[in-house]
Predict the structure.
Amino acid sequence: MSSDLKYQKGKWYHIQEDGSLKPVDYDKEVEEYYKKWRDNYGN
């Protein structure tokens, strides 16, 4: 994931280019991360 992350009040947020925080969408992003990982290292 290219954007910076910030941990605040028990949740992770992306720090967007304008400095605002966007909550991490765990279900969506974990699935995407897993797909990338599987493509690179999976069988």
